[in-house]
């Protein structure tokens, strides 16, 4: 039986967000944001978070939108966290107190942050901004928050329990106070890594520098490719990554007015995510079009081909399972 490929399309305008996805959801600077789960549940602490495509892919994809001067507090992950900026200006800062360094990213920029470090992000533009996030593994684990944030969240009435459930104490009583996750102690904080701004810049690829990174795949001079993570193979050509992280997935950008990829199949998960333009995807004889902010998950082993059909240049991210 053939698959109805529209069930694998995640149009951004159809996604259902969580307005309080994490323990810091009531704190100033974190209140006016939305969290979206596109593929897999991600690391949301909201048990009611809507997940558009629940099938395991070997990675998770989500999105975050935030009003000016809003974003995420300082936290750490045990698996990869890769950011794809769609709009606005986003300030990323890191360290247990948030003062070790910072970078500001804009549309089309990509950053892969190391695991085992505290990082936060904030929309520093003057209007609502959007970015997508790719997390490693089927189960990306849970978030570790800095002690200061957990203490401030508790004062606001939000706590996390040891099963990662999020409790609003203004609405629900906690039966066992011993189950509340306690802030890390100083000795535990010593286990986390530290980075300078120049060290983090090695894990950032800015679209404004695209001419430095674009490679022609020599296919009718139509395709320009940036390969960010892991090895990427297309049209019998292999591309090395610019970012030296092992994430469990590859991330590449296909760009061009007439960009296209001929029919091929893959045994593992593959996702197309549109940054700009309009892309026609032919999947086992069925056609679908994705536009900016839309995501399409290709069924494993299905034949697929893609082409850019808008009048201007288009950019399409290709994410593949490699673990």
Q: Estimate nothing, just give the exact number of structural domains.
A: 2
| Poorly predicted segments | none
The overall average pLDDT, rounded, is 95
Number of strands: 27
Question: What would the CATH topology of the largest domain be?
Answer: Jelly Rolls
Textual characterization of the structure:
With 323 residues, the chain is mainly beta. The chain folds into two domains: 5-205, Jelly Rolls (Sandwich); 209-321, Jelly Rolls (Sandwich). The protein contains four helices and 27 strands. The protein has helices spanning 147-155, 186-189, 197-201, 210-213; strands spanning 9-10, 33-39, 51-53, 59-66, 71-76, 81-87, 90-94, 101-105, 110-113, 119-123, 129-136, 144-145, 158-160, 166-168, 204-205, 215-216, 224-229, 232-234, 237-239, 249-256, 260-265, 270-276, 278-283, 286-291, 295-298, 303-308, 314-321. The chain has a seven-stranded antiparallel β-sheet with strand order 1-25-22-27-20-17-16. A seven-stranded mixed β-sheet has the order 3-2-4-11-6-9-15, with no helix packed on it. It is globular, with a radius of gyration of 20 Å.
How are the SSEs placed, and which strands pair?
Layout (H helix, E strand, L loop, with lengths): L8 E2 L22 E7 L11 E3 L5 E8 L4 E6 L4 E7 L2 E5 L6 E5 L4 E4 L5 E5 L5 E8 L7 E2 L1 H9 L2 E3 L5 E3 L17 H4 L7 H5 L2 E2 L4 H4 L1 E2 L7 E6 L2 E3 L2 E3 L9 E8 L3 E6 L4 E7 L1 E6 L2 E6 L3 E4 L4 E6 L5 E8 L2
């Amino acid at each position: 039986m053939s698959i109805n490929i529209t069930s694998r399309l995640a149009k951004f305008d159809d996604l259902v967000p969580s307005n309080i996805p994490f323990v810091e959801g009531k704190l100033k600077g974190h209140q006016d944001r939305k969290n979206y789960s596109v593929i897999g549940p991600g690391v949301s602490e909201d048990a009611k978070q809507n997940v558009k495509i629940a099938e395991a892919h070997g990675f998770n994809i989500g999105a975050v939108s935030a009003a000016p001067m809003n974003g995420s507090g300082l936290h750490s992950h045990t698996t990869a966290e890769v950011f794809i900026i769609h709009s606005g200006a986003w300030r990323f800062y890191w360290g247990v107190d948030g003062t070790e360094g910072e970078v500001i990213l804009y549309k089309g920029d990509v950053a892969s942050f190391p695991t085992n470090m505290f990082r936060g992000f904030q929309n520093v533009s003057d209007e609502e901004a959007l970015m997508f996030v790719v997390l490693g593994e089927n189960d990306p684990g849970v978030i570790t928050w800095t002690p200061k944030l957990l203490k401030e969240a508790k004062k606001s009435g939000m706590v996390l329990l040891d099963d990662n459930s999020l409790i609003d104490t203004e609405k629900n009583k906690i039966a066992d106070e011993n189950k509340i996750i306690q802030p890390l102690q100083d000795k535990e904080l010593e286990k986390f890594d530290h980075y300078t701004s120049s060290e983090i810049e090695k894990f950032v690829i800015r679209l404004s520098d695209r001419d430095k990174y674009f490679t022609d795949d020599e296919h009718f001079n139509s395709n320009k490719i940036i390969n960010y993570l892991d090895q990427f193979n297309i049209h019998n050509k292999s591309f090395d990554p610019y970012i030296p992280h092992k994430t469990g997935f590859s991330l590449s950008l296909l760009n061009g007015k007439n960009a296209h990829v001929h029919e091929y199949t893959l045994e593992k998960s593959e996702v197309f995510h549109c940054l700009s333009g309009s892309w026609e995807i032919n999947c086992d004889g069925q056609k679908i079009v994705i536009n900016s902010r839309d995501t399409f998950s290709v069924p494993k082993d299905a034949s697929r081909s893609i082409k850019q059909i808008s009048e201007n240049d288009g950019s399409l991210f290709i994410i593949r399972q490699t673990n």
